[in-house]
């Protein structure tokens, strides 16, 4: 186990460096091809060369390699890595604030939504998948198959808007009109947007919307995995051992069926962060997804790059943890 | 080995009181098993009959698909149903019909009274638990023993099946054992609760030839020590000759010949048995082409009328091709064959 973890961590380092370099190279290439991003900030006005130079200096955009198309700008890459390691993602182009401040302020919201979505997807997804898989071909199985297909087929922005309009606004307003109804539900759980006085409850619906697609995928994967495993030879052995049905399913079948599911759940953590862009915009949540969308619209490249870098790092760390968890669950990997 | 008193419920006590210890350990009567498939009902077992006597080793022999494993799983009560369905018959364990027991009693028969070993130990053992856990589980769930005590039992069992350094290996996972060792673990698991009857479904087919002999040797040694009755399912006529007392030859889900092992080898009474024997490679006939049984086993959704073997039989006459199927003719006091022309076959 120890050897496996060490090996996996050693593989993690070049992966991170590679990803960071790719991001850096794409950014540099963008600047080399389209010119200094600072210009965009002045809109229709033409900045004086002095203003341009001063601003570029502060944003560290003066390196001559940024004018040579195709130059990988290794020197800049080194500086950036050191900065990232010190939790410094540079300064935003528009607001002149530290990018880390902007991210730091927005991150708690995204973490909360992602967490709600994740718990929802993992819990309900696995439960639905297990029940469907145990009785494949039964009513519940068809129900899960059809409902998950629907969820996967409907784009998340459609689902989000429909739920916002019908559940949060229409239904929510009816409840809010009733003064005797508990506020935690009418103004919290059924809020149409983020409410600071209900920091968790008002993120409930956005979290469910965020987790919906992944939930469908998790349910299907769990179902397939269960169906495969209930007919496995070792399950037959467990039956031949005269164990109780509950133990056969709960211990022998489930443990094996969850191995691929855990992997997919880990990857979903990253996917949820990405999905937050849409969900946060729909439900007006001030998380990093909405910040990224706004920054992209105003052309604030520093913030966008900072958020993408952070998302990539989170994704990679989640993958590392999944791989380690995988080994905990599957001894065949551990002792390879 | 010492065994703690099993946790007994009133219904188990009732079941135990019904057992007739003078009756044979196992008797299968007119067993029929069907599988529901998209192309119709597949008749996997069609009137299976045999008696397993105390301490006997009975081989069940037949081509692939003849219903050997399905019969074994029906006895254990571990068929996948659906699609499997037992449509007729009785499975008598010490005179008690297992098919009439409650699920709970049936469950307790498994491992406690009748245990089974599977062909491929690698897939039959759970890959994510240690062998110690999988062995100990039996004692914890059936005997209510503690984790520690059950682990000690697991080590004892590994010792019994001659796995070296059992104390350390008890914490290993199945994939860390060699094929032969894994099959020994399976054997240990089957014998854990000291069952009266052991069903071994092709226990050595997945193993190297050298290891096969060791595992078979261990199995028959343990059978003698524990005074068990053994059902040995195999295609391997060589293995049968060494260890079995009697043989049931199966074709299309039915016994076509049932006889003491020596008689069947000396003078087969059914054309199918004869063909099987001719298909064994023989040292004295080296260089000659190996006889294979011509034709294919029947499609189970559409078994030929009359004698199921007639399309492949060189003795077949017109009456073989129409119902009824040949009855079990008595060839000798302890010997039957389902062939109208068994006299001709046995003499040729
Ligand atoms: N789960 C199942 N679903 C459908 N049909 C099945 C199933 N299990 C077995 N059968 C059918 O039952 C028939 C008998 O199978 P069985 O496994 O008993 O053969 P066998 O004699 O053990 O053969 P082998 O020597 O290959 O193990 C097969 O032809 C197969 O078509
Ligand atoms: S009954 Fe007829 S077809 Fe069947 S085995 Fe005997 S001779 Fe052959
Ligand atoms: Mg078989």
Automatic annotation (TrEMBL), chain A:
The keyword Transmembrane applies. The chain crosses the membrane at residues 12-33, 109-130, 142-163, 200-221, 257-283, 303-329. Keywords: Cell membrane, Membrane, Transmembrane, Transmembrane helix, Transport. It is found in: Cell membrane. Its main location: membrane. It comes from the Bacteria. Residues 107-326 form the ABC transmembrane type-1 domain. InterPro entries: MetI-like (IPR000515), MetI-like_sf (IPR035906). It is a multi-pass membrane protein. Belongs to the binding-protein-dependent transport system permease family. This is ABC transporter permease. It comes from Intrasporangium calvum.
UniProtKB/TrEMBL annotation, chain B:
SUPFAM superfamilies: P-loop containing nucleoside triphosphate hydrolases. It is found in: Cell membrane. It holds the Pfam family ABC_tran. The keyword Cell membrane applies. It is a peripheral membrane protein. Belongs to the ABC transporter superfamily. This is ABC transporter ATP-binding protein. It comes from Intrasporangium calvum. The lineage of its organism: Bacteria, Bacillati, Actinomycetota, Actinomycetes, Micrococcales.
């Amino acid at each position: 186990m120890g050897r496996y973890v060490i090996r996996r961590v050693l593989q993690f380092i070049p992966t991170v460096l590679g990803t960071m370099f790719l991001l850096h190279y794409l950014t540099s290439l963008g600047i080399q091809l389209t010119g200094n991003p600072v210009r965009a900030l002045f809109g229709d006005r033409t900045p004086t060369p002095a203003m341009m130079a001063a601003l570029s200096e502060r944003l560290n955009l003066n390196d001559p390699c940024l004018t040579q198309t195709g130059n990988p700008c290794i020197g800049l890459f080194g500086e950036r890595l050191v900065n990232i390691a010190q939790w410094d993602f540079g300064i935003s182009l528009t607001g002149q604030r530290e990018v880390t401040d902007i991210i730091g302020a927005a991150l708690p919201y995204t973490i909360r939504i992602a967490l709600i979505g994740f718990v929802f997807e993992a819990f309900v997804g696995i439960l639905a998948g297990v029940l469907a898989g145990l009785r494949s071909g039964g009513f519940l199985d068809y129900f899960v198959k059809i409902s998950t297909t629907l969820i996967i087929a409907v784009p998340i922005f459609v689902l989000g808007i429909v739920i916002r309009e019908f559940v949060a606004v229409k239904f929510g307003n009816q409840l809010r009109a009733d003064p005797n109804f508990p506020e935690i539900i009418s103004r919290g759980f059924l809020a149409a947007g983020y409410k600071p006085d209900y920091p968790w409850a008002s993120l409930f619906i956005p979290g469910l919307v965020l987790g919906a697609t992944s939930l469908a995928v998790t349910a299907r994967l769990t179902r397939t995995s269960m169906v495969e495993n209930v007919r496995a030879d070792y399950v037959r052995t467990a039956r031949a051992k005269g164990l109780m049905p509950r133990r056969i399913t709960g211990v022998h079948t489930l443990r094996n069926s969850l191995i691929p599911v855990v992997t997919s759940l880990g990857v979903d953590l990253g996917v949820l962060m990405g999905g937050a862009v849409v969900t946060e915009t729909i439900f007006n949540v001030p998380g990093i997804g909405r910040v990224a969308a706004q920054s992209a619209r105003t052309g604030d490249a520093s913030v966008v790059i900072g958020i993408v870098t952070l998302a990539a790092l989170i994704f990679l760390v989640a993958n590392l943890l999944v791989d380690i968890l995988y080994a905990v669950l599957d001894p065949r990997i551990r002792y390879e | 080995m010492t065994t703690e008193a099993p946790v007994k419920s009133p219904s188990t006590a009732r079941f135990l009181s019904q057992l007739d210890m003078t009756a044979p350990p196992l008797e299968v009567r007119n067993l029929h098993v069907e599988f529901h498939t998209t192309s119709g009902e597949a008749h996997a077992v069609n009137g299976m009959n045999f008696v397993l006597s105390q301490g006997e080793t009975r081989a069940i022999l037949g081509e692939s698909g003849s219903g050997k494993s399905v019969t074994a799983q029906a006895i254990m009560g571990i068929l996948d149903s659906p699609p499997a369905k037992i449509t007729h018959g009785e499975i008598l364990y010490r005179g008690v019909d297992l098919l009439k027991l409650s699920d709970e009693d049936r469950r307790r028969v498994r491992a406690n009274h009748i245990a089974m070993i599977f062909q491929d130990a690698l897939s039959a053992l759970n890959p994510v638990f240690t062998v110690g856990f999988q062995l100990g589980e039996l004692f914890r769930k059936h005997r209510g023993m503690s984790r520690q005590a059950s682990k000690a039992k697991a080590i004892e069992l590994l010792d019994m099946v001659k796995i070296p350094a059992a104390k350390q290996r008890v914490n290993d996972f199945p994939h860390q054992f060699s094929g032969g060792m894994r099959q020994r673990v399976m054997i240990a698991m089957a014998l854990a609760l000291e069952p009266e009857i052991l069903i071994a479904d092709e226990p050595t087919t997945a193993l190297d030839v050298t290891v096969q002999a060791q595992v078979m040797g261990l199995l028959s040694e343990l059978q003698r020590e524990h005074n068990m009755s053994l059902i040995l399912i195999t295609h391997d006529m060589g293995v049968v000759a060494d260890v079995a007392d009697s043989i049931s030859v199966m074709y299309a889900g039915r016994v076509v010949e049932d006889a003491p092992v020596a008689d069947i080898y000396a003078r087969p009474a059914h054309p199918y048995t004869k063909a099987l024997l001719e298909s064994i490679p023989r040292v004295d006939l080296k260089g000659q082409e190996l006889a294979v049984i011509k034709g294919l086993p029947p499609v189970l959704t559409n078994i030929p009328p009359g004698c199921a073997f007639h399309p492949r039989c060189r003795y077949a006459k017109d009456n073989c091709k129409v119902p009824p199927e040949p009855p079990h003719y008595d060839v000798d006091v302890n010997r039957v064959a389902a062939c109208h022309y068994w006299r001709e076959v046995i003499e040729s």
